[in-house]
Design brief:
The complex is a heterodimer. Chain A is of the alpha+beta class. Chain A has three domains: 11-227, no CATH class; 370-544, no CATH class; 546-588, no CATH class. Helices cover 30% and strands 20% of the residues of chain A. A seven-stranded antiparallel β-sheet of chain A has the order 2-1-5-4-3-6-7, with helices on both faces. A five-stranded antiparallel β-sheet of chain A has the order 14-15-20-17-18, with helices on one face. A four-stranded mixed β-sheet of chain A has the order 8-9-10-11. In chain A, 65% of the residues are buried. Among the domains of chain B are: 338-426, no CATH class; 493-606, Dna Ligase, domain 1 (2-Layer Sandwich); 627-686, no CATH class. Helices cover 32% and strands 25% of the residues of chain B. In chain B, the strands form nine sheets. Chain B has an eight-stranded mixed β-sheet, with helices on both faces. The two termini of chain B are 43 Å apart. The chains are: A alpha+beta, B alpha+beta.
Chain lengths: 589, 689
Amino acid sequence: MQEIGKKPADGVRLALLNNRLQGVARKMANTLLRTGRSGVLNIARDFSCAIVTANCELAATAESLPIHVLSGPDLMARAMKTFHPDLKRGDAFLHNSPYHGCSHPADHTLLVPVIDGQGVHRFTVVAKAHQADCGNSQPTTYMGAARDVYEEGALIFPAVRVQSNYRDNDDIIRMCRMRIRVPDQWWGDYLAMSGAARIGERELLALGEEIGWDSLEAHTREFFDYSEQRMISAIRKMPAGRTSHSSRHDPFPGTPPDGIEVTARVHVDPEAAVIEVDLRDNPDCLPCGLNLSEACARTSAMIGVFNSLDPTVPKNAGAFRRLRIHLREGCIVGIPRHPTSCSVATTNLADRVANSVQAAMADLGDGLGLAECGAVIPPAVGVISGKLPGSGAPFVNQVFLGCTGGAGAPAADAWQTICHVGNAGLCFQDSVELDELRQPIMVYERRFVPDTEGAGRSRGAHSIFVEFGPVGCDVEIGYGSDGAINAAKGVRGGLSGAAGRQSKVSRNGQVEALPGCALVAVLDGERIRSHSCGGGGYGSPLERDPNAVLRDVAEGWISPARAEDVYKVCIDESGAFDTERTAARRKGM
Amino acid sequence: MRFGVDTGGTFTDLIVEDDGGELHMFKAATTPADPIRGVLDALKVAADGFGVTVKDLLGRSESFIYGTTHAINAIITGNVAKTAFVTTVGHPDVLTLREGGRTDPFDFTVPYPEPYVPRSLTFEAPGRIRADGSVQTPFDDAAMVAAIEAMKHKKVEAVAVCLLWSIVNPEHELRVGELLDRRLPNVPYTLSHRLNPTLREYRRASSSCIDASLKPMMAAYMERLTRDLRDNGLTGRALVVTSQGGVMDAAEVALKPIHLLNSGPSMAPISGRYFAEIDEGSDTAIIADTGGTTYDISLVSRGRIPWTRETWIGQPFRGHMTGFASVDVKSVGAGGGSIAWVDDGGMLHVGPKSAGAVPGPVCYGKGGTLPTVTDAAVVLGYIDPAFFLGGAITLDTDKARAAIEAHVAEPLGRSVEEAALAIIEVVTENMVQAIVDITVNQGIDPSRAVLVGGGGAAGINSVLIARRLDSPRLLIPEVGAALSAAGALMSDLTQSFHATRFCETRNFDFAAANDLLDKLKAQCRVFIAEQAASVVSSAIQISIEARYPEQVWEINVPLSLDHFAGPEDVAALERAFHQAHEEIFAISDAASSVEIVGWSAAAICRLHDQTTGTLAATAVDGPHERERQAYFPGYGHLVTQVRRFEAMKPGETVEGPAIIESAVTSVVLHPGSSAVRRPSGSLSISPGA
């Protein structure tokens, strides 16, 4: 272990190396974002690019979805090395096995070992992208009800050599094309991943040649030490304590009737400069698609921690030395055994874990942690499939018409469009025009809903309402909206955000409530109504600055009645702040 | 005689092109409260220089070309009109949602950003047009009139209208315009389909709101500028630089002020293109302008200056995307004033915090205490403390040393000189990464591009940047310190016309495409005819915004044809797209068809015969230092020859280590590099290794 308080060798080389490696990862990510074909990749930014060392330690990531990247690249690189001791330049490996380090089967990943001129494996570059379809038994990549991986149906690739000598193994490409519903889209995304990974390889080869491989490795080790030092400083600023927090997932097909409760125990030890998260005391895996992969279990715990720390601490193997994540084999939020299904591992229970960890951190003291973020996936962010009017060609695509759910933070109101805690708001929100052009749908309405925020000193996100439906054809819409019963909780006196809900409007205007998780047939002219979850508030609403409440009323975020009932801020008839009555109401509590 | 003026943050630069085609450079302090004052001051400096009155000088002008940051400053400081936003009923949160996205995923200290127009000034217009242009719900005059009355009640000063699918069927937007004409006759408004006919409602709405919010004040500003210039004797044409790197008449731009957002920085690549071509015969260049606080990078790719609609005011995802075509300029927080600091893990950072103009670097002696890049350059001997801005300010080397010692050298355990080098090295890397980012996005290989350094501080580390990028050549034009003002003189009068129509090459609709191109070309020809008197030559450039099926981000591809006669022309379009995609992203999908979303035609009118770009010779005044000690990485202190920029003869070569300085710049030649003076006056530097 690194001696605490020791200065790293060279603060200048550190800055330069950090910049270079980040630059390579960013270059990979820019390429992937702009060349990907499926909406889930290029709109939701549901992809990641990372560099891991030859020892399978995470060295650098581009700005990527947190749930993709903190742990996973390390585990996948290790699987690649174990299965293929004979790595050669020009190799690339296709990996989506949740039993070998991938997040879930829809996240196709390309791993390229970076081999120097002497044939030595120096780094591995990782490009991962969520696919529009991965060959599941139903046209969705989120098979929440699948009993096991067989019912789920995805083709599983445990680090399979898909390129040798820079050439595709066409057998594997053909297998994918025979099994994936939108083969051209998949092929486009595969090309994009391949382009990104090869750019990363090329850049790292140039970097190694330029500064020498041994000194590059030495710099990387120094950077890990530096990152660990930053982590130590950050943890030293926190109070010591043990807390735990539980978060309950709604009942879904395949879960017990009261859903699944997840508990995270958190121990912050500033003296040892270590944070421990224990997820072992949780239920066993269930015969459904909600089980977490090891990568997602580990990462979701880490997200909760890093959401509560100085954001400038680098996220790499050096900083991770100060984390202890305890997982149990066979646990629903632990290490799953084949053939347990992990189809929905990146969102639902993973979010419950991350939310539990950050809420537990908030219990340690004011100024720490975060409230809970809202759950997903509402129908407005569902997968739409059907046949195009006219050509009759099949289409499958995930739309991103509206999800919010941001959590109130110690010193700032929520980022509205956080989407879910594992996404961190990186997801784009679709343009109505673009969606109406890309598929035969019409978006009738999209607006934030007043009074749905988790009230607090810092308020959580509002729900967003979206009404949409097919035009000129029938479609199916698949979604899995957790949070209809268990809304995002506030912390430190903050209130819960609004629950999510959804319904269908028939052609004659009849409204029918829809379940939380379903594949719904929607006929031409029918409409889906989708309400995303709000986010939890941080701190008591009575501590909210009355001027901020006034602004929220003026801008239509909350009603005057809610200002008075919940925030105890009174507004007179002219819209001005009534100081006396407010003081009385707030004192009266 | 022609005048190019660029109002920057600190200086107002004026370049005068005399009738022989030689350039003369003048500077005056920018006067932020009244920038036109600074322009007139610069003209006075020039008039004094020529020994004439301002009236005589302006009386000889063919044209006066003005670049200004006034519009963007008005937005940043919130000095724009109270603007109402009219949107389609059911979709009030277009501006609040933007297009989603966020940076810094673990940073929860930043709240969700405010919309450009508040929700309380957002009004929902009745009616709905479908994607195919048909009417789903008809417009309703009475409901709209009620909304306009509410605007009147709220005393709005400008109105922006952006309705869904107005780019396909503008009927409802036009009706809103008619009602506004009648009910709010003195309030200017912007209709999105006229201003910026592009797909994606947020981009159109954002550009319309920005445009409308600038109208009252920019109309007044342009009117005053023109009047003041006329009163001072201007007889030629008053033109303004646009975000797209062209120029427009001042009166015209007042009607579409969004064109002014990037006025100024958009000119740097015009200059850069010119010098890369005449000095190095290269059509590909990276233009980097080093200021006090920011480092602005733009590109020239095979003679073209790439543009983008994704320009942000403020930080990406936290500010407002303009959605309006602009020269692609990337700006990062790195410059002469960037502050160096060491964090609690012992890592050195430089920027993005800047000492700004006040208090400025420590060596200015105006109260700055935190060491900056400029302080490092002084400590290293790169800048002559007695000759900064030609001696206007004497720099305090001791103070700079002390600050670097305390804040960098001590925490890093290095000597002051090595600490100063480290500051230069880190800021260099920050600049390099910014260049890498924009070149990746535009598909340019820096090792095949000429690096053009502009801005007074460019010379400090440009050799190091060129080495890191493997650039074969670094060019420091003699007018480099006023690159934008010089660019203004080289720019063409341009007007772009856009249309949105979805078209796939697999099922190509020849009649529709040709009809659309004919209309765009006709618009261009009308514009060109209107300019007839002052135009030397003209051209029409067709380009498309296109993508592979299922992609969502279009790329801009210029076409060499303007009519589709048969399948071979469509195949040519596909080839051009594949090639552009391959260049930008290193991959292409030759078997795939191509989707075209947007069509553009630009009318380009050349206003002048090519300028020389050469500064008129000036006498070197007074005695000059011939050598001094300067500190170089890997060498330590070296006796370094010092040359005056303007005294070097064309074709003359100087080998590093050397410093070539003038009143406005200081160019450091590291050991191993060498510079040759080009006939244009530029320093052409071989960076060495």
